[in-house]
Automatic annotation (TrEMBL):
Keywords: Hydrolase. The keyword Hydrolase applies. PANTHER family: 4-NITROPHENYLPHOSPHATASE-RELATED, D-GLYCEROL 3-PHOSPHATE PHOSPHATASE. Belongs to the HAD-like hydrolase superfamily. InterPro entries: HAD-like_sf, HAD-SF_hydro_IIA, HAD_sf. One of its GO terms (molecular function) is hydrolase activity. This is HAD-IIA family hydrolase.
């Protein structure tokens, strides 16, 4: 039997809606990734969620029974901090809207993390954080109006959860966009191809496969990166969504869950 995974030397997994929902692993996901590890197939994890650092993500995954190492985890938070460090001088003040993980990533690359517009930040970076408040959005609004660049880690409208889709960072970005009557200057995470390209480079892969649950981030990002993709139906998108998707968001394959990696390839319905 020809298995889907046999044509690839790296599998890049999205996390929310693919490997876990909330604090619980998706049934079969730890076993599937463990099987890849046992067979010597490289794995990487690419997430737009900016609320955890790579080492924290890897530890969370290991706690769920998923073999994962910090170097295999690629986050939009780290990518956003790296992009700001490339654009700004060392010690530049940056206002962070999001979780402590995003603050830590910015501090680690030599930026000065501030919390108020009165501290004259030259940039605002906005990422998902479950405790983001109106007060933080207000400071960001004032800073951007004063001329600070505005960087979003991602614009995912929703975040999968056991209770159904919940507001994601895109919903918070949209609130600020309405107040400012403009969009962010830069969006770092998927569907931009950077996280996938970084994962392939680090693994030395020539034939990567992206696995995701969202057409507008995971699958579109794979298309932009020139990589094949597998849409799993454990998160946001449905099989009907895949069948009607435009070419820019159409997955190469569809499967019920990560067990599809070990089955013959199945194309989306036409």
């Amino acid at each position: 039997m020809t298995r889907l995974v046999d044509d690839y030397d790296l599998v890049i997994f999205d996390l929310d809606g693919v490997v876990f929902l909330g604090a619980q692993p998706i049934p079969g996901a730890p076993e599937a990734i463990s099987q890849l590890d046992a067979e010597g197939v490289a794995a990487a994890f690419a997430t737009n969620n900016a609320s955890r650092r790579p080492a924290e993500v890897a530890a969370l995954l290991r706690g769920m029974g998923v073999p994962a190492r910090a170097g295999e985890v690629h986050t939009a938070a780290r990518a956003a901090a790296a992009e700001l460090a490339r654009r700004l001088p060392a010690g530049a003040p940056v206002l962070v809207v999001g979780a402590d993980a995003l603050r830590a990533e910015c501090a680690e690359v030599g930026l000065a993390v501030v919390a108020a517009a009165a501290e004259a930040p030259v940039a605002v970076v906005q990422g998902y954080g479950p405790q983001v408040s109106w007060a933080e959005l207000a400071e960001a609004c004032v800073a951007v109006r004063a001329g600070a660049a505005w960087v979003a880690t991602n614009t995912d409208r929703t975040l999968p959860s056991p209770r159904g889709p919940l507001p994601g960072n895109g919903a918070l970005v949209a609130a600020l966009a309405v107040a400012l009557d403009r969009q962010p200057d830069i969006v770092i995470g998927k569907p931009a191809p950077g996280l996938f390209e970084q994962a392939a480079r680090r693994a030395g892969a020539t034939r990567p496969l992206v696995v995701g649950d969202r057409l507008d981030t995971d699958i579109e990002g794979a298309v932009r990166a020139g990589m094949d993709s597998l849409l799993v139906l454990t998160g946001v998108a449905s099989e009907e969504d895949a069948a009607s998707a435009a070419p820019a968001q159409r997955p190469r394959f569809v499967g019920a869950d990560l067990g599809a990696l070990f089955l013959p390839p199945r194309l989306p319905a036409s």
